[in-house]
Design brief:
Organism: Macaca fascicularis
Family: Belongs to the extended synaptotagmin family.
Protein name: Extended synaptotagmin 1
GO molecular function: calcium ion binding; calcium-dependent phospholipid binding; phosphatidylcholine binding; phosphatidylethanolamine binding; phosphatidylinositol binding
Number of strands: 50
Strand content: 35-45%
Largest sheet: 8 strands, antiparallel
Mean pLDDT: 75
Distance between the termini: 105 Å
Structural class: alpha+beta
Keywords: Calcium, Cell membrane, Endoplasmic reticulum, Lipid transport, Lipid-binding, Membrane, Metal-binding, Repeat, Transmembrane, Transmembrane helix, Transport
Shape: globular
């Protein structure tokens, strides 16, 4: 083999080490023997050369001390010198590693056969592909051809860079007018092809090859900008990867192959040795950043789904289809959970071992997704779904990497890879996969979605997706591929200048942009764009043709995607006239839609014992006709003892006091305030309040609800942050044991929770808790008349859904699962149940109005229900519990409801705090009688005002809440701007006066504002509360128009109950009534 000068002869097999040696590590004597003519030379020139080398070395070391001298001369501290020294040492280390890697790789390629023979005991990943894989062939004949062509390829590259690239760079920027390539050499080390694999059995009109390429070259490219005396360049580079080459279409004429497509299946590895000014890119940190940026550029050009197409014949048909073919399929990746992860967080310098904050990166080609972070958990539950396009099978791999989130650098926890061909073969793959490079397993469910070219099964797909709960995005029903070809006769810019057109394509909130074509009104793009569609029947494609500045619109097009559903093969290939453009402006695009369909007829389910979905069909569904061993059919469900014991914790976030001021202005000279908000974490859920601007004593008045169990050890975590543009500042944290809350029923120490507080979110609070136990089903319809289905059930109440596990291949599944739902209006809401089969759609449904539970014994139904399809029954238990506060903040509040006149739908917030579930059915039904009842007392002629008045004895305060008004009188042409004024008579001074905010132009304002007066109870009973509803007469006037008023004699009002009531408004001389 050829060897570059100065490297020395190849060592003999006896002297060859197990790893490639560093040629520079040989002693000087060895280098002296390499010169055959050294012995006959006189000693004089050798001595002079040695002296010159010593002087040069001394001068270099002296030159290094100049920066130290300059730093001392200008008075810089020693820290600057140490920082520069550390920077230089880091650069030197990175540079030496790159040079050492280049030398080792070159020697490995030069002595491949010897090293392979002597290192067969090494791991497979250190061997060439033709050794590791028997179907990969060694192509030395191809390497010899490349070596022969390499010098001529270098001449072509030099000509290309000098005559094409350099003029383009000089014309792109006036500062680069002196840019030139001073040296272009591809070197003597050609590209090597380590192995070639030909994939048989693919489509007959194409030839598919995988080339395992490795380039460890001594390429040297130098550039210079003479105007600024700037020099830079590359000296040595490594590139390793698998390049797929597709020869298609095969034609019956020379040259037999119509075009060649090339692309990397996965991102190749790259390592560049910089020279000149670009030496700065070898500084630690910048080195990996620069290589990543270059790899991103290569990926945008040569990594799937991007590819390089070289047509070999003129007038080749479907060039766009060859350059951007349709995906082979879609894989829906359900990232469910992980278990047994390693603990990376340490405290107290490693003495205390914590947990990890895991998140996952899911990658296929250039498609990357990042899951949310689960704090302090070694067995995280993500439950997220992603959809990826698969372009090449075999070849592409699904890669999942798990990391521990840290403030500085995230710790690696493990990685798994899976070839997409296995998903295609299985259809649905649901399994735990071990993590390599770490410990633990990750749980994935992978579904292969086929692409259908007709809309026959679209309704089935849409109905299927409605029953699937998916986050962060809903499941897709179709994909759309847009081939953007060209445009004609676009309008010119001002001054009859040619535009630089580019195209923006948008579907809902997803926008993609094409490249800009400069100085033409007839651009040619030849680009492809891909979109996921949730409902192609209602979505639209919006196309905007703009100048590259984005300020000038050259034309627009809006295309309803329902038009493709009636087109042949869901394809439109034509010219489209542009609107808001020239009279002859048009755009040529090709749109191809494909329906995503999960075919479950060939699904292979796992049979590992204990794995999800691994059910014994015979054990769950006895043979028909056999009554000997068949168990008797149960009449009622048999839930476990924990069913129906959940609590609903209602968290009232009221206010905070004396927070820290974090905002600073004018470089910290002026002290500001904070913009606080609250984050709550409990039972795996997180809540966040709104932000109160510039307030150290904020008042939020928000209510959150969460279903909790009595499992010990749970804590409510409350954190307060200051909202900032970059990173939010931490203001404080507190934790409250949930056991304390459940035992006391009331929390008033840190959060100052008051169950009688009213907020604008009160209408969203729950009135009851529905617990559903889904046990089993029987006699479900068979798939295609003979095969048992793979059933699962979805339970839905309002916007909340629960999906059970899937039981494979049985018409009598047993689920044994429970779910809980918060109910806001029990009289009008209903429980919707759907039983579906994987890949077969709806098997049956059931709608259970919750009003049936209100009249049932103990508010519970436990029996068999017949599905609406007429075939199949389900056994379930539905139990309703009314939310009753264990402590209302009012002394005399009782759990006896027979004397209460309040309405559940109007004031569920009055039963806040952590309520319990009562089973007193007769009393509960009496209390629920007035929910959503239309038989309300009609409003008076002046309207009504809704008030809650009670005395809070613990704080010795009289409290009143103004909820709102309704049916106010309109005296003029426009509605009034009402507000409510409260006065505690007989005092009429400003100290007892309270006033709500003003609402604009409404006859039914909502206030939900709370007011307090500090006074003893006996004094409060001697007072009267004067409530006046007023409106501003005009903008310039201070006069107030009285819309109505009411006076409450507090001695005649029950101040212990705190009941919200409507009061009729009267004239100034009358007295209101309730």
């Amino acid at each position: 083999m050829e060897r570059s000068p100065g490297e020395g002869p190849s060592p003999s097999p006896m002297d060859q080490p197990s790893a490639p040696s560093d040629p520079t590590d040989q002693p000087p004597a060895a280098h002296a023997k390499l010169d055959p003519g050294s012995g006959g030379q006189p000693a004089g020139p050798g001595a002079a050369g040695e002296a010159l080398a010593v002087l040069t070395s001394f001068g270099r070391r002296l030159l290094v001390l100049i920066p130290v001298y300059l730093a001392g001369a200008v008075g810089l501290s020693v820290g600057f010198v140490l920082f520069g020294l550390a920077l230089y040492l880091g650069w030197r280390r990175v540079r030496d590693e790159k040079e050492r890697s280049l030398r080792a790789a070159r020697q490995l390629l030069d002595d491949e056969e010897q090293l392979t023979a002597k290192t067969l005991y090494m791991s497979h990943r250190e061997l060439p592909a033709w050794v590791s894989f028997p179907d990969v062939e060694k192509a030395e004949w191809l390497n010899k051809i490349v070596a022969q062509v390499w010098p001529f390829l270098g001449q072509y590259m030099e000509k290309l860079l000098a005559e094409t690239v350099a003029p383009a760079v000089r014309g792109s920027n006036p500062h680069l007018q002196t840019f030139t390539f001073t040296r272009v050499e591809l070197g003597e080390k050609p590209l090597r092809i380590i192995g070639v694999k030909v994939h048989p059995g693919q489509r007959k009109e194409q030839i598919l090859l995988d080339l395992n390429i490795s380039y460890v070259g001594d390429v040297q490219i130098d550039v210079e900008v003479k105007k600024y005396f700037c020099k830079a360049g590359v000296k040595g580079m490594q590139l390793h990867g698998v390049l797929r080459v597709i020869l298609e279409p095969l034609i019956g004429d020379l040259p037999i192959v119509g075009a060649v497509s090339m692309f990397f299946i996965r991102r190749p590895t790259l390592d560049i040795n910089w020279t000149g000014m670009t030496n700065l890119l070898d500084i630690p940190g910048l080195s990996s950043l620069s290589d990543t940026m270059i790899m991103d550029s290569i990926a945008a050009f040569l990594v799937l789904p991007n590819r390089l197409l070289v047509p070999l014949v003129p007038d080749l048909q479907d060039v766009a289809q060859l350059r951007s073919p349709l995906p082979r399929g879609i894989i829906r990746i359900h990232l469910l959970a992980a278990r047994g992860l390693s603990s990376k967080d340490k405290y107290v310098k490693g003495l205390i071992e914590g947990k990890s904050d895991p998140y996952a990166l899911v990658r296929l080609g250039t498609q990357t997704f990042c899951s949310r972070v689960i704090d302090e958990e070694l067995n995280p539950q993500w439950g997220e779904t992603y959809e990826v396009m698969v372009h090449e099978v075999p070849g592409q791999e699904i890669e999942v990497e798990v990391f521990d989130k840290d403030p500085d650098k995230d710790d690696f926890l493990g990685r798994m890879k899976l070839d997409v061909g296995k998903v295609l073969q299985a259809g649905v793959l649901d399994d735990w996969f071990p993590l390599q490079g770490g410990q633990g397993q990750v749980h994935l469910r992978l579904e292969w979605l086929s692409l259908l070219s007709d809309a026959e099964k679209l309704e089935q797909v849409l109905q299927w997706n409605r029953g699937v709960s998916s986050r962060p995005e809903p499941p897709s029903a179709a994909i759309l591929v847009v081939y953007l070809d060209r445009a004609q006769d676009l309008p010119l810019k001002k001054g009859n200048k040619e535009p630089n057109p580019m195209v923006q394509l948008s579907i809902q909130d997803v926008t993609q942009e094409s490249k800009a074509v400069y100085s033409t009104n007839c651009p040619v793009w030849e680009e492809a764009f891909r979109f996921f569609l949730q409902d192609p029947q209602s979505q639209e494609l919006d196309v905007q043709v703009k100048d590259d500045s984005r300020a000038l619109t050259l034309g627009a097009l809006t295309l309803p995607l329902a038009r493709l559903l009636t087109a042949p093969e869901l394809t439109l290939d034509q010219w489209f006239q542009l609107s808001s453009s020239g009279p002859n402006s048009r755009l040529y695009i090709k749109l191809v839609m494909r329906i995503l369909y999960l075919d479950s007829s060939e699904i292979c389910f796992p049979t590992v014992p204990g794995s999800p979905g691994a059910w014994d069909v015979d054990s769950e569904s006895p043979q028909r006709g056999s009554s000997v061993d068949a168990p008797p059919r149960p009449c009622h469900t048999t839930p476990d003892s924990q069913f129906g014991t959940e609590h609903v914790l209602r968290i009232h976030v009221l206010e905070a006091q004396d927070l820290i001021a974090k905002d600073r202005f004018l470089g910290g000279l002026v002290k500001g305030k904070s913009d606080p908000y609250v984050k709550l974490k409990l039972a795996g859920r997180s809540f966040r309040s709104h932000v109160v601007r510039e307030d150290l004593n904020p008042r939020w008045n928000e209510v959150f609800e969460v279903i909790v169990t009595s499992v010990p050890g749970q804590e409510l975590e409350v954190e307060v942050f200051d909202k900032d543009l970059d990173k939010d500042d931490f203001l404080g944290r507190c934790k409250v044991s949930l056991t304390t809350v459940l035992n006391s029923g009331f929390l008033d120490e840190v959060l100052q929770v008051n169950s009688l507080i009213q907020t604008q979110k009160s209408a969203e609070l729950a009135a009851a808790l529905l617990s559903v136990y889904m046990e089993r089903a029987e006699d479900l319809p068979l798939r295609k008349g003979t095969k048992p289905p793979n059933p699962y059930a979805t339970l839905t109440v309002g916007d909340t859904s629960h999906k059970t596990k899937t039981v494979s291949q049985t018409s009598a599944p047993v689920w044994d699962e429970s779910a809980s739902f918060l109910i806001r209006k029990p009289h009008i809401e209903s429980l919707e149940l759907q039983v579906r089969g994987e890949g077969t759609g709806l098997l049956g449904s059931l709608s259970l109005p919750l009003s049936e539970l209100l009249v049932a014994d103990q508010l519970c139904l436990d029996r068999w229900f017949t599905l609406s399809s007429g075939q199949g029954q389900v056994l379930l238990r539905a139990q309703l519990g009314i939310l009753v506060s264990q402590h209302s903040g009012v002394e005399a509040h009782s759990h006896s409801y027979s004397h209460s006149s309040s309405s559940l739908s109007e004031e569920p917030e009055l039963w806040g705090g952590p309520p319990h579930i009562t089973s007193s059915a007769p009393e509960l039904r009496q209390r629920l009688t007035h929910v959503d009842s239309p038989l309300e007392a009609p409003a008076g002629p002046l309207g009504q005002v809704k008030l809650t008045v009670w005395y809070y004895s613990e704080e010795r305060k009289l409290v009143s809440i103004v909820h709102g008004c309704r049916a106010l009188r309109q005296n003029g042409r426009d509605p009034p701007d009402p507000y409510v004024s409260l006065l505690l008579l007989p005092d009429k001074n400003r100290g007892t006066k309270r006033k709500t905010s003003q609402k604009k132009r409404t006859l039914s304002p909502e206030f939900n504002e709370r007011f307090e007066w500090e006074l003893p109870l006996d004094e409060a009973l001697r007072r009267k509360l004067d409530v006046s509803v007023k409106s501003n007469s005009s903008f310039m006037s201070r006069e107030r128009e009285l819309l109505g008023k009411v006076q409450l004699d507090l001695a005649e009002t029950d101040l212990s109950q705190g009941v919200a009531r409507w009061y009729d408004l009267m004239d100034d001389n009358d007295k209101g009534s309730s």
